[in-house]
Amino acid sequence: MFSKSSLYVSIIRYYNQLKLDYKQLLNDDIIKAEQSSFLVHGNVLPQDVVYKLKILEQNEPQTFISTLCDSFEQKLVLKSDLANTDTNVVVSLNSEYNIALDKSTLFETKYFFEASGIDFIYSPFHILNLHCEQNPSASTLNGLILNNSLYILILNESNQIVYSSIEALTSFEEIQKSNFYDNEIFGQKLFDEIYYFEIENIISSVLEKFYETKEKLFIDKVTILHMIKQLNDEQINRLHKELLIEVNYHPISVDDYMYELAKQPVKSQRSFIPPRKKEKSKFVLFSLLSLTLMITFSAFYFYNYITTKKQTVQDQIALEKSQLQKKQEIEAKEALKPKLPNHMSKNQKIHNRVLSLFELIPYSVVIEELKLELNASTLKVHLLEDDIYIKEMQPKLLKAYTFSSIEFEQSDAKAALKATINNSEYLEQKTTTQEVLPLYIQNGFLPKLRVEEIIDSLLDEKAVYVFKSDFKSDITTYNYEVVTIYKEPKEFFAFIEKLNEQKYSMNVSYPVIMKKTEHGIETAFTLQFHQNH
Asked: What is the helix, strand, coil percentage profile of the chain, to 5?
């Protein structure tokens, strides 16, 4: 089979910079990804960017360039309503809404890329909508900050868009020109404060306008997506207290979403312009020549068959043998492709092991701390009966572990006995059920920032996590250390169930530590994300 290559370039104008993201594909697999940035002034594409794009297109004819149109001259329109197509270009957002963009604004965007050419132009609403589709969250206000604009979508309890707007933010250049600007340091502090109060005011006023028309729907969460972090954690907490509503502030890889949009089939495209016609590459010409030769050969063979009417049993056997050989070759290639770990199986094993430890604890024993490792476990407990371990707990533990022992820390008979129970050499439970590998999403290699965006959507607001390491063999694995507070153990089991619903290979790994504190059950574990590279 011939290989098919292509290149996708996403260009985002962010203040006075152009951010370029390149993804090189071979047979729809990302084999190379790079990023670069260029300074830009005025409304003309810098010559060094034009030169770079021209070189890329010469090396790879199947190069597709996409960008965003950041403008207030666009709005969402219900598909049941007719937009003014004399002054607007209308494209689809989703099954319910279109986006209407002013034609003069679209012309300005196209003119900026006149020297290089452009294939796809999208709205920031496309990015925000795609994020909401991939991370459904009912009854929420969702915002995307791009340059000096805040794009807003409000979703109802059915995850449908019920409100949209574009709100203006004060730029740093405006602060510099004001009478309050003394120097760069105090100017930055002034900008930070103004930026915070504008975000707070925008959210408050948008919610107020929304509630005037949608009285029955209550918004219980606000999510703001950003490319560069402007608000710190303290300001986010202030927003939460001032608005009396949950506020999430997440980074977003806009270029990855633009790549997903550009990769959509032509019939499903949401771009304001059609892509440019591409020159046929040598691969295409060679494929057409090969196909022509194959058709000619097949026609000759068929003509010979009709005229001679001699198809022997040996011919049929040879044909079937060839087909069988091709099938075996395809199956062999599939078998060689590295398979992602079955995250559902891994998660279920940890779920069962933690649950089994809780289930064997009698009423006269209180767990203070639990630590689960690959082949061992440790329980720090308070015993109300000094012989309860020998009578009830040890026989059950020895069914799961080769060794189980207890070490007392306090011998005062009037108080609950403190003890540590150590279990080692875990006896893996054999199963006769055949594992079925989940059908994972295959959308190319995800960068660490995108992986962490997925993790953010799964963890609760109390959770914190840090990247610990990565490991590359046949696949790539990212390891994160997660610490959170649960009120009761069933919240941990609910998180595992949420992981099992994902179409990514994500699993909880050892060690798992649960410790009773005054705030709840402090829980720490390793979270792994696996993907093909």
From this structure: 35, 30, 30
Q: Write the CB contacts of 225 (distance below 8 Å, at least 6 apart in sequence).
A: 128, 131, 142, 143, 144, 145, 250, 251, 252
Phi first, then psi: give them for residue 300, nearest 5 degrees: -65, -40
pTM score above 0.85: no
For residue 103, count other CB atoms closer than 10 A to its CB.
Answer: 15
Contact (Cβ atoms closer than 8 angstroms) between residue 358 and residue 377: no
Q: Are 77 and 98 in contact (CB under 8 A)?
A: yes
Neighbours of 516 (CB within 10 A): 14
Judging by DSSP bridges, how do beta strands 475-486 and 464-472 pair with one another?
Answer: antiparallel
DSSP assignments along 18-52, one per residue: EEEEEEEEETTEEEEEEEEEEE--TTS--HHHHHH
Taken in order 32, 33, 36, 41, the sign of the CA dihedral is positive
Helix residue spans in 360-435 (DSSP H)? 388, 394-397
Say which residue the tokens 């009830």 belong to: 392
The residue to which tokens 């495209």 are assigned: 269
Q: Which two tokens stand for residue 441?
A: 């999403």
pLDDT in tens, 427-456: 987 765 556 677 888 767 888 888 998 999
CA distance 228 to 247: 17
Question: What is the tens place of the pLDDT at every residue in 354-403?
Answer: 999 999 998 889 999 999 999 999 999 998 888 899 999 999 999 999 99
